[in-house]
Amino acid sequence: MGGTFDPIHHGHLVAASEVATEFALDEVIFVPTGEPWQKVGREVAPAEHRYLLTVVATAANPRFTVSRVDIDRGGATYTIDTLRDFREMYPDAELFFITGADAMAQIMSWKNVDELWELAHFVSVTRPGYVSEDFGRTKEISLMEIPAMAISSTDCRERVREEKPVWYLVPDGVVQYIAKHRLYQPDSADSAR
Ligand code: ATP
Ligand code: MG
After folding, report:
1. How far is the CA of 57 from the centre of ligand 1 (A)?
2. pLDDT by residue (tens digit) across 94-146?
3. Which residues does ligand 1 sit against, CB inside 6 Å?
4. Where is the Cytidyltransferase-like domain (predicted)?
5. Taking the domains of the chain in order of start, what are their residue ranges?
6. What CATH code would you report for 2-150?
7. Closest ligand to the CA of 11
8. 122, 110 contact by CB (below 8 A)
9. CB-CB neighbours of 81 under 10 Å
């Protein structure tokens, strides 16, 4: 499951957990992005913070792990590169790529989209505020309805900036990590915005 995870929230975790159960996955690997090329116009928290937030949020689940491949590759993250790297690391694994409906629509807008289907099966989960579409690719993309979590990282960042709580939207450890490093606060050296 790729994402900016800026910060990781319960929408991400429910999506991962639901897909893992439905498809009997051995492991869900969270892959925080390097430079988020489609998020031009806003700064993103440093990769190291996003990586550690993801580790903190997933540490208790024995099936959840975090990969640094996109961060360590550097530069813009393209899902095709992520999947090629995983195919090389796990040549015999059956790979799934978990996305929300909004991210699936973005992926479908790429020009080299057809290369993706050989690398992984895509699972597009429902997300409040977005329409779920299989884009006529029912073999390559599974649509899955999951409990509606109207949570976004954008909203979490705004809430921190406005001194509103993010308790229960993100895991407790993420609330504490954000406070410790003063992320997403306008006066913070650590924060990107
Ligand atoms: P931002 O507001 O910064 O874009 P985000 O909440 O959309 O953050 P991302 O890191 O962009 O989070 O998303 C990573 C993946 O998780 C994407 O595939 C996205 O569609 C999916 N996702 C994020 N939030 C939810 C949610 N509440 N329900 C279902 N899927 C989600
Ligand atoms: Mg997003």
Report:
1. 15
2. 999 999 999 999 999 987 899 999 999 999 999 999 999 999 999 999 999 99
3. 3-6, 11-12, 15, 99-100, 102-103, 125, 127, 149, 151-154
4. 1-159
5. 2-150
6. 3.40.50.620
7. 1
8. no
9. 15
> Integer distance in angstroms from the first to the last C-alpha of the chain?
25
Q: In whole angstroms, what is the distance from residue 1 CA to residue 21 CA?
A: 14
Atom 29, ligand 1: residue with shortest CA distance: 127
- For a ligand 1 pocket test, name from 5, 9, 12 the mutation site with the most ligand atoms within 8 angstroms of its C-beta: 12
Structure tokens at 106: 């973005």
Distance CA 121, CA 68 (A): 21
Exposure b/e, 85-109, CB count within 10 A at least 16 = b: bbeeeeeeeeebbbbbbebbbebbe
Residues paired with 89 in a beta bridge: none
Choose among 128, 189, 133, 186: nearest CA to 162.
186
